[in-house]
Structure formats: structure tokens, C-alpha cells
């Protein structure tokens, strides 16, 4: 164990950021025998608490993102087992639910566009089947009669990220992970290697290795030589609540401009806007209006649900939309960030990759293309 | 006589032109990427050597594009620039293709597509991008040294559009605006009366107004008459990719226009962009055709080539269409093979 300066106790691994990614990595490292300290100031900008929690590699698949897709598929396969382990360790439910997803078109134009995605799924060998309008409405009778067709991705799942985060916190506590509520100011380096971090109150904490997982703040914390271009991409969501028997849909329902995620407890999440507005967390009337309007267009019954609240979060996003996971050019400094729309989905994969790197073990194959060093080569910033 | 040149008093000979003033300041008035204003009014490039200055007038020479032409690291020539120059808003440009920045899946896609397009002007939706924030797509645009044309996408009333344009002027330090006033969110078609009202107000306020309009020759005339720097008729609805649905109207607009005509909206593929240029448009503005393509970078390069090809074909003197064939090889003097 490293000794801290200024009296603060050090750690083998110091993790900056206590979201699903940071705590997930901390837990795996602690399970491997390391003394792990997580530092996080808390606060409102945690993407994990605003995310809709879709574990949906098919719905997220797009052109030119094969590396990301491989990681997403790998992680989706890991999720059930990961959830079970968290529950076992921490004694709290994670609420992983393989509910499936149905993406629908609400007119002919949207159907043509959606078919294009379905054809991409076929090319990529993903589990996705095209359904005519009637078949869509038989699966989800709450759908609008405007539905013109859609694809079903039965393997997609969801988890309430706030429930999962609570379960992960318990599992971390049980595994001996220490958590300190403080804001990290910068990474301490010396001789080209990371030595620990400095907090904003001047306290310095030494560590043998540092993992940066601070979401949208990643770029600001990377010391020279390890820059990872991550920018905040704002997303607004609306939370609704259905009484028992009032659930608008059974599975995730997506349309061109909204997704509706039903949870086991009756919560229904509508998401999400995509806005390039920097570190802005305001919920706007226009954003909420669009979510409600589009959800109502797809599933009119959402109008009957209780409006619980609205929130905005910041997706940490790299220039290629794929995360950066691994060692940087600075010795002893690792990053796990830039998960964009896929932080919840990629949490188990990220944790396993980080743990394997710490063990000097073989990483999952899909991690090969996700090294943070890829940005140093291209010279591109966010 | 004494004039005020970029804030300094300068002695010029009586009868000196704007071009003379620029030279006196050590600036080549022919150089691309600068604009010269007299008493706050930008002087069109072709009039720089004609407009004579009065004593005491205020002349400002402005760098339009910091650092000149954007980086064309792929070594290919700029697109669409024939021997004929492309002037828009009193400046000269190296590309006739303007690219919208909305709808790209990632900043990586955006950056590669912008480079491949050869575009110098890119539009940015003021409503969706906060110019004061770091880490937005403005970083990409700045890095590639492109000219930002703020648009008023998402505005439904003249008042909203005018207010947004003023915000854009403050935020970007440009008085250029792509003026959009949308009638409804299903068709995204322009609202002609609101557009005219907003255009008039913005021209009055000194803006260089580039209005997104219906493919209506009468509206185009009216927009030019109120002082718009260009008219930008749609080919078909925004994002529809349905191409140019009424090429006859576009031809009529082009024929009557004294300002550049830029085909804006509806482009789906390269032949649509080429057709716009063949119809006589001065430029093409597109976004979705590139941003939502499976390979945006490749489509951007296709659009660059299509705009250049269409422009060249327009000016190369095409043959008339005929009903019957006319052999391209000579029919006289054929060998008699008996």
C-alpha cells in the first residue's frame, strides 16, 4: 500500500469517479486483491443517474462503428452474470431485465429509414427481425395505429441505473473499496508517471496507479501526454410513473426521435435529446416537449401516466463515439471514459478490461481498438 | 485627403478608390479571405477599384477567413471553382459547396466529411450549439479553419429568427446569417411571409442575409429586392433526399436573379447536386445527404466532385438534346470494302 502525502492514506489503485464505470472497475480491482480508493465529489452531473439504462447493442448499432459494436455485444453478454455477482456481493437487487426492444416507424418515410437499419443488422449478423405494422401492434397493443412497421430486437435488456448504482456501491463496500467524497483537481505526476491525485482543498493522495473515470470531465483531468478528447453531449429525459396495470408497453419501444423504457416498478423513462451545448444541465421546455410529443405519437397512452420529473445529463463523448479504455502514455495512468450513449451497457466490459490490464492479463478482444492512445496517433481533439 | 483606415488616419490622393486604400494599408485587395467595408457597408469585390472614397470616410479591412484557405491535406484541388469566381456576400470563395453540420453520428465523421467536401462555409444551428461552450462542434470547425454561417433553424416566427440572428452576431462576430423561418415541423417548409419580414429587418440591421426559401420565383425576386445577399431555394423538403422536384422553377429563379442562387435542401445524392449546378445555381448547400450516409466522408467527396462537375458542364456548352441519333464518328469517307 502506498503512503499518502499530507497525511492522506494512499492506495494501490485510485479511481476518480464513482459512476457505474468507475465503481465497476474499482470492484473488479478490489476483488483481485488491490487496495482501492474511489474519489468523487458527487453532484448532479453523474451520467449514470440520468441514463435510461438500456442494454441495447442492436438498437445502438450504426455504420462505421464496428469496434464499438464488438465491445457492446461482449458487454451485453456479460451483463446477466455481472448483475448476479453484484447482487451476491452487496446483497442488493440490480434489477437487470431482458425485456427486449421494438423499434417502430410512424410513417412510410420512417419505415424506409428503419429498414435501412434492419438491413445493417442483417449484414452484421445481429438479432433483429422485421415486423409488419400488425405484428408490431400485436406485440405492443399500446402502439399508435400510425405504426408502419418495425424491427424487434428480443435480446435487448434494461436496468435502472440508479438501482444498479446502489447495488454496485454495496458490493464495493463489501469488497473493501473505500470511497472519499472530494473533488479531484489534477493528477500528480513525477518522472513521467502518475503518482496520485491532488484534491481541490490541496490534499494530495498517493497511489501506485490512477484510473480516471470522471465522465464528461475526463479531458480536463488528463495530464499532458495522456490527453483523451472527451466532450459533454447533453441529454434530457422525462420520468413518468404507471400504476399497476397501466404500463404503456412491455419492452423498450423506440421511434425515430424517442425511446420509451418501462421499468419493473412502474417507472417509465422517455429519452433522450442529443445536444452539443457544453457543460449545460438545464432542462428546457423544448426538450421536454419534444420527448412528450414523440412518445405520445408512438404510444398515446403515455398521456395518462404521472409526470414524475425531468433531468439532464452529460454523455462523455469521443470523436468516434467509442470509449477510451486502457493505459495512457503516462505510466501508471489508466482511463475508462468516453462511453457516450453506452455507459450502462459497457460497464461490465469496461470493468473486465481494466481488471485484466491491472492483472497484466489478456483483455477482451474487443478492447484492442479502444485504447486511449488511438487519439494521440490521429492528433484529433474532441 | 485623409480617411480613417482600420482606426488610423491615412493620407490618400484625391479620388483614391477602396482598392487604393487597401494597398496603402499593405493589403492586396484581390486576396481571398478579406472583406472591405466603407462606413460599415461591405463593398462588393468587383467594385473595389471603382468606388471612390470621400475625405474623412471610415474604411475597414476585415480578415474574413483567418489563415486563408482551409487545409486540403488530401492534396486534391478545391471543388467547383472554375475560371468564374464564386462571390457571395461580397467575398470570394474557393468552393461552391456549403455543408450543414447537423446529423453527423460523431465528431470524427463530421471532421473527415468536412475535409473531404472541400467546403469553406459551414452552417451551424444556433439553437443547438452554444458558441460559448468548449468541446462543441465549433472546435472541429475552428481547427479546420472554416467560415461559420450561423442559421436560425428551429425558428417559427420572424421575431424568433431575428432575435436568434442577433445572438449569432454577438456569439460568432459575424453578421452573416442563413435565415430559416419554418412553417411547421412536419414539412419544415419555409414560411414565406415570416421569411420576408425577418429578412427585411435583418438587412436593415446590416446583416448579410442568406434566406432559405421555397422554390418560388416570385418570392426569390422579393427576397433579392429587400437586399438579401443570395436566394436559397429548396429542391425538396429538408432531409427528404428527394432531389430537385421542380427544376423549371429553379431555372426561372436563376434566370431572374441578380444575386447568387444556392440550392438549399433536398439533395439526396451526387446527381442531385450536379443537376443543381447544371440548372445554373451558383452553389449547393446540403447536410443530411452527407451526415446520414453510411459513409459520410465518401459521400462528401462525391458531393464535392458533383458540384464541380455540374458547374463545369453548365459552362462547357452542352449539346442540344435531339430526338434522333447523330453518329459521333464520321460517316463520310468510309472505306468501301467490296
Q: What would a concise description of this structure say?
A:
With 382 residues, chain A is α/β, with parallel strands linked by helices. Chain A folds into two domains: 11-50 and 163-230 and 320-378, FAD/NAD(P)-binding domain (3-Layer(bba) Sandwich); 98-155 and 231-317, D-Amino Acid Oxidase, subunit A, domain 2 (D-Amino Acid Oxidase, Chain A, domain 2, 2-Layer Sandwich). Chain A has ten helices and 18 strands.
Largest sheet entry of chain B? 5 strands, mixed
Distance between the first and last residues' Cα of chain A: 36 Å
Q: In the CATH scheme, what's the topology name of the largest domain in chain A? A: FAD/NAD(P)-binding domain
Q: Which strand-content bin applies to the residues of chain A?
A: 25-35%
Which spans of chain B of ≥5 residues are poorly predicted at pLDDT below 50?
63-81
Helix content of chain A: 25-40%
Shape of chain B: globular
CATH topology name of the largest domain in chain B, in short, is TIM Barrel
Which structural class best describes the helix and strand composition of chain B?
alpha/beta
How many runs of DSSP E, i.e. beta strands of chain B? 15
Q: Output the helix-strand order of chain B.
A: EEHEEEEEEHEHEHEHEHEHEHEHH
Give the oligomeric state.
heterodimer
Gyration radius of chain A (Cα, Å) is 21 Å
Amino acid at each position: 500500500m502506498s503512503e499518502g502525502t499530507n497525511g492522506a492514506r494512499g492506495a494501490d489503485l485510485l479511481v476518480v469517479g464513482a459512476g457505474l464505470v468507475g465503481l465497476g472497475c474499482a470492484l473488479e480491482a478490489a476483488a483481485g486483491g488491490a487496495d482501492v480508493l474511489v474519489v468523487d465529489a458527487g453532484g448532479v452531473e453523474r451520467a449514470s443517474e440520468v441514463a435510461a439504462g438500456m442494454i441495447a447493442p442492436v438498437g445502438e448499432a450504426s455504420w462505421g462503428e464496428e469496434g464499438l459494436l464488438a465491445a457492446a455485444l461482449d458487454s451485453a453478454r456479460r451483463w446477466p452474470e455481472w448483475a448476479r455477482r453484484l447482487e451476491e456481493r452487496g446483497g442488493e437487487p440490480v434489477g437487470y431485465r431482458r425485456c427486449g426492444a421494438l423499434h417502430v416507424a410512424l410513417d412510410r418515410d420512417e419505415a424506409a429509414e428503419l429498414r435501412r437499419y434492419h438491413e445493417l443488422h442483417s449484414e452484421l449478423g445481429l438479432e433483429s427481425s422485421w415486423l409488419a405494422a400488425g405484428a408490431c401492434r400485436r406485440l405492443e397493443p399500446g402502439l399508435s395505429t400510425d405504426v408502419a412497421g418495425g424491427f424487434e430486437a428480443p435480446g435487448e435488456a434494461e436496468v435502472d441505473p440508479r438501482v444498479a448504482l446502489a447495488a454496485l456501491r454495496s458490493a464495493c463496500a463489501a469488497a473493501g473499496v473505500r470511497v472519499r467524497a472530494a473533488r479531484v483537481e489534477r493528477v500528480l505526476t513525477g518522472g513521467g508517471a502518475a503518482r496520485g491525485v491532488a484534491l481541490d482543498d490541496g490534499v494530495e493522495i498517493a497511489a501506485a496507479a490512477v484510473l480516471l473515470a470522471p465522465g464528461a470531465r475526463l479531458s480536463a483531468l488528463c495530464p499532458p501526454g495522456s490527453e483523451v478528447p472527451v466532450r459533454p453531449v447533453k441529454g434530457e429525459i422525462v420520468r413518468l410513473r404507471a400504476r399497476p396495470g397501466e404500463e404503456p408497453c412491455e419492452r423498450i419501444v423506440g421511434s425515430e426521435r424517442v425511446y420509451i423504457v418501462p421499468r419493473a416498478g412502474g417507472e417509465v423513462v422517455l429519452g433522450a435529446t442529443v445536444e452539443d451545448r457544453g457543460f449545460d444541465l438545464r432542462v428546457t421546455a423544448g426538450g421536454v416537449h419534444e420527448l412528450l410529443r414523440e412518445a405520445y405519437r408512438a404510444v398515446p397512452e403515455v398521456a395518462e401516466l404521472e409526470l414524475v420529473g425531468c433531468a439532464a445529463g452529460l454523455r462523455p463523448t469521443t470523436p468516434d463515439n467509442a470509449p477510451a479504455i486502457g493505459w495512457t502514455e503516462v505510466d501508471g495512468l489508466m482511463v475508462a471514459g468516453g462511453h457516450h450513449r453506452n455507459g450502462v451497457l459497457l460497464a461490465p466490459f469496461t470493468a473486465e478490461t481494466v481488471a485484466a490490464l491491472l492483472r497484466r492479463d489478456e483483455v477482451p478482444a474487443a478492447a484492442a481498438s479502444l485504447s486511449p492512445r488511438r487519439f494521440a496517433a490521429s492528433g484529433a481533439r474532441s | 485627403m485623409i480617411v480613417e483606415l482600420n482606426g488610423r488616419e491615412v493620407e490618400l490622393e484625391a479620388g483614391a478608390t477602396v482598392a487604393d486604400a487597401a494597398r496603402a494599408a499593405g493589403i492586396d485587395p484581390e486576396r481571398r479571405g478579406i472583406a472591405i467595408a466603407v462606413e460599415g457597408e461591405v463593398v462588393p469585390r468587383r467594385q473595389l477599384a471603382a468606388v471612390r472614397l470621400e475625405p474623412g470616410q471610415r474604411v475597414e479591412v476585415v480578415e474574413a477567413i483567418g489563415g486563408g484557405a482551409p487545409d486540403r491535406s488530401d492534396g486534391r484541388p478545391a471543388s467547383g471553382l472554375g475560371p468564374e469566381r464564386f462571390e457571395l456576400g461580397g467575398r470570394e470563395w474557393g468552393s461552391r459547396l456549403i455543408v450543414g453540420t447537423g446529423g453527423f453520428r460523431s465528431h470524427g465523421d463530421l471532421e473527415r466529411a468536412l475535409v473531404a467536401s472541400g467546403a469553406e462555409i459551414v452552417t451551424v444551428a444556433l439553437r443547438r450549439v452554444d458558441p460559448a461552450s468548449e468541446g462543441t462542434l465549433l472546435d472541429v470547425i475552428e481547427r479546420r479553419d472554416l467560415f461559420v454561417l450561423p442559421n436560425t433553424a428551429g425558428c417559427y416566427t420572424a421575431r424568433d429568427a431575428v432575435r436568434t440572428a442577433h445572438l449569432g452576431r454577438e456569439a460568432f462576430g459575424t453578421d452573416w446569417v442563413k435565415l430559416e423561418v419554418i412553417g411547421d415541423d412536419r414539412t419544415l417548409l419555409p414560411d414565406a411571409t415570416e421569411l420576408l419580414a425577418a429578412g427585411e429587418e435583418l438587412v436593415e440591421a446590416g446583416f448579410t442575409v442568406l434566406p432559405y426559401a421555397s422554390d418560388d420565383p416570385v418570392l426569390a425576386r422579393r427576397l433579392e429586392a429587400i437586399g438579401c445577399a443570395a436566394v436559397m431555394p429548396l429542391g425538396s423538403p429538408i432531409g427528404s433526399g428527394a432531389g430537385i422536384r421542380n427544376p423549371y422553377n429553379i431555372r426561372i429563379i436563376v434566370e431572374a436573379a441578380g444575386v447568387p442562387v444556392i440550392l438549399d435542401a433536398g439533395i439526396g445524392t451526387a446527381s442531385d447536386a450536379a443537376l443543381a449546378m447544371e440548372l445554373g445555381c451558383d452553389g449547393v448547400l446540403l447536410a443530411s445527404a452527407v451526415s446520414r450516409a453510411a459513409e459520410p466522408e465518401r459521400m462528401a467527396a462525391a458531393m464535392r466532385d458533383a458540384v464541380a462537375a455540374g458547374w463545369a458542364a453548365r459552362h462547357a456548352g452542352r449539346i442540344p438534346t435531339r430526338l434522333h441519333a447523330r453518329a459521333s464518328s464520321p460517316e463520310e469517307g468510309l472505306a468501301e470494302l467490296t
